[in-house]
Specification:
Length: 425
């Protein structure tokens, strides 16, 4: 146990040192490395110093050293990019989205179209399968995350983000807030937690990207507390819908606490089990999405599910508490072992820091969005990988199309107004 605690402290100290060095280079703590590393530092410290007293298993020194090797790879790539690119600082991102403020009414209407479509699907499912108690059932999640409403919900993420980005300059702030709340409820009904937390993280990063470091630290602490509260409310609402919630019922609070703690803290515990199973998943796992697309085009009915390939069976992380997530680095390990995991960390870090550096050098609506998306994925690396999920690619495509349509409209209006002015002359 002493070795475990020493390993945890060593891990935290090394990450702190690397963070300080990177901060001096980039003048910020919101980077792919920091967002990848610090959730793991927090989790490992909480598990090995607190949760073990509640019956949780430890994050082993072996798992800690494996994570440190991957994070060191990410950090080295980031430092290399900091020397290749000038460490530009952005004063504000608001000006970039100022040309899109005129579309706020259209974005509001489109958001409510998405909300209505998803809510009608939810209403039909609940009416057909037993009412509110069906919420939280794995069959409900399968049904609501497939079909037109699932794809449309990804467009809802785009309108949510754009409305959030233009909010400071918008004329109809109250209506936007109401619309954003409606979209949050819609994401909640999809049952997949990263749908909601993911877009909130992207908005959080957007509004803190240019802040001074001290304000970034306070904002990060506040957001972590908010995310914890959202997860707690999510689980509590489910028990209310199931008809099992009673304030005085100890089993309910035990269920809530165990599920909440396992969701946030289980992945590096599970990782140790995964480190005994290198090369057990196919080498094409990360290309699974593209195999499915090819199968669709060729008329092959075979569709691969990401959930069958990016993890292993459930592992016990405490007495009667189980989890099947083992960090993104663990996923790469069960596909190709140590070398492949470090290789993927280097590839993803290179892509992330390239977009990150490009955004700081010359921000545009598209590269700002891609930067927020990759930083969001970096943050969730403590939980799992998301490069095999269609939803992220759909969101990116919807966003780029939306931005380009608005750009074309703005260009057309500008040319039309210019021609009128020339006609007057």
């Amino acid at each position: 146990m002493e070795l475990t605690k020493l390993s945890s402290l060593f891990f935290a100290a090394i990450i702190l040192g690397m963070t300080v060095f990177e901060k001096r280079r980039l003048k910020t703590i919101i980077t792919p490395f920091s967002l990848s590393a610090w959730p793991l530092v927090f989790i490992i410290m909480v598990v090995n110093f607190l949760l073990v007293k509640m019956g949780f298993y430890i994050v082993t020194p072996r798992a800690i050293m494996f994570l440190l090797a991957n994070l060191l790879t990410i950090w080295i790539i980031g430092i290399i990019f900091s020397y290749i690119y000038n460490n530009d600082t952005i004063q504000s991102l608001n000006d970039i989205f100022l040309p899109y403020v005129k579309f706020e009414k259209i974005l509001i209407v489109l958001s409510w179209v998405v909300n209505i479509v998803v809510f009608l699907k939810v209403k039909n499912l609940l009416a057909k399968y037993g009412g509110l108690s069906f919420l939280g059932d794995y069959k409900f999640e399968e049904m609501i995350t497939r079909g037109p409403q699932a794809h449309l919900s990804q467009f809802g993420k785009v309108t949510f983000l754009l409305l959030s980005f233009i909010y400071p300059m918008a004329d109809h702030k109250k209506t936007i807030l109401l619309t954003l709340f409606g979209l949050i409820v819609m994401f909640f009904t999809l049952q997949v937690k990263y749908n909601l937390i993911g877009v909130l993280i992207m908005v959080f990063i957007y509004y803190n990207f240019t802040k001074p470091i001290k304000k970034q630290i306070y904002s990060i602490l506040e957001f972590c507390l908010l995310a914890f509260i959202i997860m707690a409310l999510f689980l509590m609402v489910l028990t209310i819908f199931w008809g099992t919630f009673t304030v005085s019922k100890q089993s309910v609070w035990l269920f809530l606490s165990k599920n909440l703690l396992s969701y946030f803290f289980a992945s590096p515990i599970v990782l140790d089990n995964w480190l005994d199973h290198a090369l057990v998943q196919p080498d094409w796992t990360l290309l699974l999405l593209f195999k499915n697309i090819i199968n669709r085009i060729m008329g092959n009915p075979l569709i691969y599910s990401s959930f069958d390939y990016v993890d292993l069976n459930f592992s016990e992380v405490a007495n009667d508490v189980f989890s099947n997530v083992g960090t993104s680095y663990g996923t790469y390990f069960i596909i190709g072992g140590w070398i492949f995991s470090l290789f993927m960390s280097a590839v993803i870090s290179s892509m992330s820091y390239f977009i990150y550096s490009s955004t700081k050098k010359k921000p545009s609506p598209v590269n700002v969005f891609l930067c927020m998306t990759l930083l969001n994925i970096a943050f969730f690396s403590f939980f799992g990988q998301y490069y095999t999920f269609l939803s992220y690619y759909e969101m990116i495509v919807f966003y780029i199309i939306t931005i380009k349509v608005m750009d074309i409209y703005n260009l057309f209006v500008f040319d039309f107004q210019k021609s009128l002015q020339l006609g007057k002359v």
